[in-house]
Amino acid sequence: MEKMSKCKVCVTGGAGYIGSCLVKKLLEKGYTVHATLRNLGTSLFLISLRLALDLFRASLISNRVEFADDRSKVDFLMSFPGSDTKLVLFEADIYDPNTSVRRVIYTASVVSTSPLMEDGFGFKDFIDETCWTPLNLSYAYSNPNLTEYVISKTLTEEQILSYGTNSDIGELEMVTLPLGVVGGDTFQSYTPLSVALFISSLTNGEFTYQALRFLEELLGKLPIVHIDDVCEAHIFCMEQPSIRGRFLCANSYVSSSEIADYYQKNYPEHHVLERSKERNQVGHHKANLEGFVYKYDTKMILDDCIKCATKNDDRSKVDLLKSFNGADSRLMLFEADIYDPDTFDPAIQGCDFVFHVATPLLHTQGYQFNNTTEATITAAKSIAMSCVQSGTVRRLIYTGTVVSASPLMEDGSGFKDSIDETCWTPLNLSFAYSDSFFRNYAESKTLIEKEILSYGTNANGTDGLEVISLAAGLVGGETLLPYTPSSAVVLISQPTNNEDMYQKLRYLEELLGKVPIVHIDDICEAQSFCMEQPSINGRFLCASCYVSSAEIASYYQQHFPEFHVKQEYLDGPKREIKWGVTKLVEKVFEYKYDKKMILDDCIKCARRHGDLQ
Which of 337, 379, 534, 609 is the most exposed place for a label (fewest CB within 10 A)? Predict the structure, then answer.
C-alpha cells in the first residue's frame, strides 16, 4: 500500500463525539480528510481546521450527497451511522469498476453484539465478534427508542458485512467496528450521551442510568472503550494492507456496579446510589482486532468520562473540528444527514478510506423513513455504494457497538462460553433492564452492522471494497467535546448515582454477559490501525477490558473513596464468560488503556465538565 499520508479519507458524522476525535487524529497523522455534517452552519469548529479538511453537507435521509468538489476522490470511507429498527432494502449501483474507494469502515455499536442466547435464557460465556444481538427478544430497561436503536445497529451492521462477501463488488473491503460504550474527553460543547452513561450513577440522571442498565442487560456487562482508542482503532483498520470483517472495539468489559464501585472508591465527593440486585455476568470479552493495542483501561476510560463531564465548552461542533492542528489545510467539512443518505457522496469522493461513524439515536420526523433503522440501513447501503462508485475508496470502516455481539444463546437459555466476533445479538430475545429504546437500539445496531459487513462479503456486488466493522465496547476516557460523553457517563453512573445511566450499564451487562470497555483513544487508534493495514476485512470487537458492572463499582469504591457507591452496584452479577476477542490483537494492534485507565479518565472527564466535584 502506498504511503498512507497521501490517501484521502472520508469520515461521515464528523462533528460527533467519535467522529470529531477521529478527524483530529487523522489530521495529526497527515491525512487529508473529507468530513460530513448534517448542517455546516453549526460546525464552525471543523471549519477552523481547514488546511486538509473539506466539509460536506450530507444526510442519511436523502438519496443524494452534494460534493463540494466533484473532482475529488477518496480512498477510504469511514462511516458513523445512525440507528433504528427496520431493515429497508433498496437497489443502488455499486458495481462501478472505476471506484476509488478501497475500504469502507463502518462504525457500529456493541448493541449489535449481545452475548444473549437466542432464546433469551441467559448469556453466552463470552462476548466477541461472533455475537449478534437477538432481535426477537425483549430487553430489560428497554424502551421503544432503545429497542429501535438495537435493531437498527444490528441489521445495518449485518447488511454492511454482507457486502464484504459479495464477489460482484470487486476488491472493496468492508469493515465494521462495533464500538463499546465510548468514554473519554471531547472537543464538543456538550457532554456526549455515551459519557453521560458512564457517570449516570454519579449524576442521578434517570434516563441515562436506564440506558446504561439496558446496555448491561443486553451485553451481560458493558464493553467500554476510550474515545482515543476508538479513533486509533479506526485508523488502524484503515492503514492495514488489507482488512475485512467485524471487529468489536472495547478494551474493558465491566458491569454497571463495577463502574459505580470505581467512582465510589475514587470519587468519594459524589454519592453513588446503592443497589442490591444480584446480576449475572458474561465470562469474558475476546479482543479480535489483531495487531491493535488499546491504550486506555477501565480506570482511564471512567476517569476521562469524569473529566469530560466536568468540562464546560460552548464551542460549536465546527469550531471544535476546525481548531485541530492541520485542519486549516487538511480538513474539509461537508453537510450530511443520515436521513438524506446521498448527501454523504461528496465527502466520500476522492477518499481512500471511509470511517462510517455517524449515528442518530432518535428518529427524525418528516422523511420517508418510519424510523432510524430504516434511515441508517439505507444510508449504510448508500455510503457503501458511494465508496464503490468513487473509484478511490479502498476500505470502509464502520464503528459499531458490542451490543450487536451479545454472547447470548439464540434461544435465550444463557450465554455462550465466550464472546468474540462470531457473536451476534439474538434480536428475538427480551433483555433485562431493557425498554423500547434499548430494544430498538440493540436491534438497530445489530442489523446495521450486519448490513455494513455484507458489503465486505461481495454479496452486494461490492467486490474489491474492504469492509471492517469495529464493534466497540463501552467507550470511556477523556473527550474533546464540551460535555461528558454519554458512554463515559454510563461508566461513572455508579459514583454519580445516575440511576438512568446505571440501568444502561446493567442492560449492557445483561446483554453481553459482562461489559466490554475501551478507552476512546484506543478506539481511535484501532480505527487508524484498521485503516493503515495493507489489507483488512471483517468484524472486530474493540474493547480492552471485559468486566462486570460490579467490578467497575468496586474499582470506583477502592480508588475514588470520595464517592459513595451503593452496595447494590457492588452486588452485580458474577459471570465467567470468556473474552475471546483476539482478531485485532492478532493483527498486532495494542490497546494502551486498561480498566483502571479507562475508568479514571471517565472520572477526570466528568470532573472537568463539572458533572463531578
Answer: 534
Q: Which three cell numbers stand for residue 269?
A: 465527593
pLDDT tens-digit readout, 14-49: 777 788 888 888 888 888 888 877 655 544 444 444
Are 395 and 466 a contacting pair, CB within 8 Å?
yes
Backbone angles phi, psi at 437, to 5 degrees: -65, -50
pLDDT bucket at 285, cuts 50 / 70 / 90: low
What are the Cα distances from residue 362, in Å, to 38, 188, 437, 443? 15, 19, 9, 14
- Classify 226 in phi/psi space as left (phi over 0), alpha (psi -120 to 50) or beta: beta
Question: pLDDT tens digit string along 85-103?
Answer: 233 322 233 345 555 777 8
- Segments making up each domain of the chain, as ranges: 4-608
Q: What region, left, alpha or beta, does residue 93 occupy, with left being phi > 0 and alpha being psi -120 to 50 degrees? A: beta
- DSSP state, residue 370: S
Q: If you ran DSSP here, which 8-state letter would residue 305 be given?
A: H
Catalytic residues: 445
Cβ-Cβ contacts under 8 Å for 107 (sequence gap 6 or more)? 13, 18, 78, 79, 80, 81, 176, 177, 179, 234, 355, 356, 357, 358, 359, 397, 398, 399, 400, 470, 472, 527
Question: What is the per-residue pLDDT for 599?
Answer: 93
User: Could you tell me the pTM of the whole model?
Assistant: 0.56
Rounded-to-10 torsion of CA 511, 517, 521, 522: -90
CB 487 within 8 A of CB 195: yes
What is the signed CA dihedral for 322, 237, 597, 209, rounded to 10 degrees? 80
